[in-house]
């Protein structure tokens, strides 16, 4: 796997990162359906960047079929997707702290760390909002 499809829920800030072999429209649509929607259900709205895979007929048709409102961020304005950009920064720095060639193996542990970290603006963690309880993590995970 070479790429990651990333998604962040706006309410809980729950992040997902799905390893994918390419950035083709078919791969993106399939991964979104089988990865995100199969776990969390159909979102009311999907905000994406201006990647051609999100502007394709396939992704638009999938969104329309599922009843999802599709919006796009402002081009060349990363602030319009702040939660996703912050997630990307945290994810990248955490993965780089591990051996870069083993990033795929480190991904699940990095994600649980991000999901269970306290978010001051939410006064809780994403994991607590999703699961209704604090995740019990091994102490050595943080040391």
Notable traits:
two-stranded antiparallel sheet, two-stranded parallel ribbon, 143 residues, 5 helices, globular, 17% strand, Nucleotidyltransferase, domain 5, alpha+beta, single chain
What order do the helices and strands come in, and which of them pair?
Layout: E1 3-8, E2 15-20, H1 25-40, E3 45-48, H2 57-66, E4 69-72, H3 82-97, H4 103-116, E5 118-119, E6 124-125, H5 126-131
Helix pairs in contact: 3-4
Can you describe this structure?
By secondary structure, this protein is an alpha+beta fold. The protein has one domain (3-141): Nucleotidyltransferase, domain 5 (2-Layer Sandwich). The protein is 43% helix and 17% strand. It has 5 helices and 6 strands. It has helices at 25-40, 57-66, 82-97, 103-116, 126-131; strands at 3-8, 15-20, 45-48, 69-72, 118-119, 124-125. The strands form 3 sheets. A two-stranded antiparallel ribbon has the order 1-2. Strands 3-4 form a two-stranded parallel ribbon. A hairpin with a 6-residue loop joins strand 1 and strand 2. Helix 3 (82-97) packs across helix 4 (103-116). The mean pLDDT is 88. It comes from Araneus ventricosus. It holds the Pfam family rve. Residues 1-143 form the Integrase catalytic domain. InterPro entries: Integrase_cat-core (IPR001584), RNaseH-like_sf (IPR012337), RNaseH_sf (IPR036397).
């Amino acid at each position: 796997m070479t790429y990651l499809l990333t998604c962040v829920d706006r309410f809980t800030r729950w992040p997902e990162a799905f390893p994918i072999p390419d950035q083709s429209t078919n791969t993106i649509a399939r991964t979104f359906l089988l990865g995100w929607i199969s776990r969390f259900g159909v979102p009311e709205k999907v905000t994406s960047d201006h990647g051609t895979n999100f502007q394709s007929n396939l992704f638009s048709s999938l969104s329309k079929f599922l009843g999802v409102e599709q919006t796009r961020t402002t081009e060349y304005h990363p602030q319009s997707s702040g939660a996703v950009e912050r997630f990307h920064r945290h994810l990248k720095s955490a993965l780089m702290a591990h051996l870069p060639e083993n990033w795929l193996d480190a991904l699940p542990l990095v994600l649980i760390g991000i999901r269970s970290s306290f978010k001051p603006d939410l006064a809780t963690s994403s994991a607590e909002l999703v699961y209704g309880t604090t995740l019990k993590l091994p102490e050595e995970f943080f040391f």
